[in-house]
Amino acid sequence: MEQTPVAPQTERRKIIFSAIQPTGVFTLGNYIGAVRNWRTLQDDYDCIYCVADLHSITVRQDPASLRSHTLEAYALLMACGLDPDRSILFIQSHNPDHAQGAWVLDCYTQFGELSRMTQFKDKSARYADNINAGLFTYPSLMAADILLYQTSYVPVGEDQRQHLEITRDIAGRFNGVYGPVFTVPEAFIPKAEQGARIMSLQDPTRKMSKSDPNPKGCVTILDEPGAIMKKFRSAITDSEARVAHGPGKEGISNLMGIYSVFTGKDFAAIEEEFAGKGYGDFKTAVGEAVVQGLEPIQRRYKELMADKAYLEECYRRGAQQAMNLSRRTLEKMYKKIGFLHA
Ligand code: ATP
Ligand code: LTN
């Protein structure tokens, strides 16, 4: 295929790609660890973000819920400030190149390396009656998502670090055989203090997760103010009654991380602000900061969900834009491998 001319490398902005699964309303963990950063990156990069519905079926999903969660996830991304006029926002299954690319990459991914993935080990223990092949090959689909767009950086939370490592390994291996087909991407993970890993409010040793069976541990970005305050007031802390971070203070450190993100204050300033005050005051302040920070997102979300035609127009356009880019890489992969031109 003829290559369309592209501007010299120096004039092109680097590409960012990331995705989130439509497995429920986003939690504060998703927002702080990932989506919040996706918004600011739009200023300096060409950003591509997607709702990873193909990944979500590695765990059994009810069809009606999957449909509504997918549209909701798309609207939530926009409500969090992702702009379809500046970035490409699309739904993974609307671009068939991801599934096609994933099959190819499956053949350049080793059984041994997939067996070492902690997410696979965790999820296969949690869903022991459905350890399907998709759960196992999840990382090569994720590698296809990223590599099809010649991505330079992938902003994700700490839990995705291992998936980024395997993506780099797959890209390096493919390039080693066929020459430089893929850009080898780097992970963009926030610092611990900036919320790379937000923990459950009920068990600060476990990550806050959309699919947490205990809703008290998990604040979603659409929770009502009353529910948010209640969850923070009943957050698990420790018996020391001193707002500070460090070993044995995982609950308080987690709350400090959340408070820091919503107020812009660093840990030293937070310790000073609450010196001599009890945990009750601190928890109330964290809850109030979160309620205030989420209010504009919740308002925008309601507006967007009231205009389904607009959402549909945006995700259709996004899929087309995504395909225009991914097609070039997929065609290059096919050609290098030796598939006869169709
Ligand atoms: P599920 O519960 O369905 O496995 P999840 O809540 O873990 O989902 P994902 O869709 O897998 O969310 O992740 C979307 C993004 O949010 C990823 O970049 C992930 O690293 C980030 N993320 C998820 N949970 C947290 C958390 N507790 N703290 C920081 N970042 C997080
Ligand atoms: N596996 C990711 C979601 C995801 C993703 C991606 C993230 C699917 N494809 C590509 C970054 C890049 C997760 O957060 N669980």
Report on the structure:
The protein is mostly helical. It is built from 13 helices and 5 strands. A 3-stranded parallel beta sheet has the order 1-2-3. The protein has a two-stranded parallel ribbon with strand order 4-5. Helix 3 crosses helix 12, helix 7 packs across helix 8 (161-178) and helix 10 packs across helix 12 (279-305). The longest helix is centred in the last third of the chain and has 30 residues, at 308-337. The protein is globular, with a radius of gyration of 21 Å. The N and C termini lie close together (11 Å). 40% of the residues are buried. The structure holds adenosine-5'-triphosphate (ATP) and L-tryptophanamide. Adenosine-5'-triphosphate binds at residues 20-21, 23, 27, 29-30, 32-34, 156-157, 159-160, 195-198, 207-211.
Key terms:
three-stranded parallel sheet, two-stranded parallel ribbon, binds adenosine-5'-triphosphate, disordered N terminus, 342 residues, binds L-tryptophanamide, mainly alpha
Number of helices: 13
Radius of gyration: 21 Å
Shape: globular
User: In whole angstroms, how far apart are the ends?
Assistant: 11 Å
Fraction of residues in H or I helices: 40-55%
Please give the number of β-strands: 5
Structural class: mainly alpha
Weakly predicted, low-confidence segments? 1-9
What is the ordering of alpha helices and beta strands? EHEHHEHHHHEHEHHHHH
Spatial strand arrangement across the major sheet: 1-2-3
Largest sheet: 3 strands, parallel
Cofactors, ions and other ligands in the entry = adenosine-5'-triphosphate, L-tryptophanamide
What is the percentage of strand-forming residues? 5-15%
- Rounded mean pLDDT is 93
